[in-house]
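Exercise 7 asks you to align residues with tokens for two separate proteins.
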Amino acid sequence: MDMTPEFTLLALTLVLALVQIGAAGLARTAELGVKWNAGPRDGEVPPPGRLAGRLMRAQANLFETLPVFAAAVIMAQIAGRDGALTFVGTHLYFFGRLAYLPLYAFGVPYIRSLVWLVAAAGLVMVIAALFL
């Protein structure tokens, strides 16, 4: 099977997920220190600071939809349902998720929610392609 644009966007989304894991981890380590990160992390841990908390929530937000996105892209490719809907949908999802991260990290309201809706619309488009 060829590496279609949809699979490429899925792969880039997986890279984005790794970037978000790393960013959240680095921010948390900057707050609590390398010794905490290397240790067993037993006991009470203070709540995350502003940046680490935002990065952790952005990561959790991505992980809520990433399995659905991955399944929809894979199903569309296997079923031969790829086309304009999946092409546009995967681009909207990926670039929406890419823009969402810095918007969340910098605490930008409203625009962040609008960008989330763009990514969600892309996800819906890929799912819709399975039925059309």
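Second protein for Exercise 7:
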Amino acid sequence: MTLTKATKENLRRKSSFIDKVQMIGKIPLFSWVEISTTDLCNRVCTFCPRANSDLYPNQNNHISKKLIKKIADELSAISYKGGVLLCGYGEPLLHPEILEICSLFDKKTRLEIVTNGDKLNEELIRELYATNVNMIVVSMYDGEDQVKHFQNMFNKAGIKKNQYILRDRWHSEADNFGLKLTNRAGTVAWGKQDKVIQNKKCFYPHYSMSIDWNGDALLCVQDWHKKLKFGNVYANNLLDIWSTKHLTKIRRNLANGKRSSAPCDQCNADGTLHGFNHVDKWKL
């Protein structure tokens, strides 16, 4: 598949900070923290596990402000220089306290939101950026007319073009809906999926941390099974979770192209677009 212009733009933008390695002692720190703020989504996309309500039903579960405050304080304490993304497994703007959630992060934090845009309006956009949001990425599913719609909305809210990204996702199945389609660790079979190759490298756990709404630290955002956990942020601090022996073993295997254990053995995600600098620093 040929990546769309917006997708390429987003990858280049993220590379500017994700692929820079911050060291904590001898440990290469994560440079991307993705937080799933809610277990709700107002859309059902065919390429998403939520298309199967038996597998992944909508549930009224939301991350607490207490947990966000703990995460934000720990990131601030280590002078974290990477990015924080509010997205994960649900639509972040469905969190009933999304503005309070965003305001808990340090103003120096690179805080981003990925949304389908359905809940956005001029006032909410202005309020989000007035907290500590630096970037909003809108995935548009309904058609090309949405581009002008959102451009006008952000413009009226006083937001500059380099502070938001509009990603075209309205394409047909023949063009993989305009995105890099993955099978979400074996939970999705829709579309022209790449084959699962079990001797293919992956760098997700070398640079990214995935945190669910309940505080569970997961292997990566591709793992919609959520069966592999490395601690819980309520009980453990981020650095301890990041340094667990189990996670380090998985990093070693994936750096050497071994996807032989679940959930990686069913995953077809590339996993090498970012994190290559982190792999070198891990020296596994």
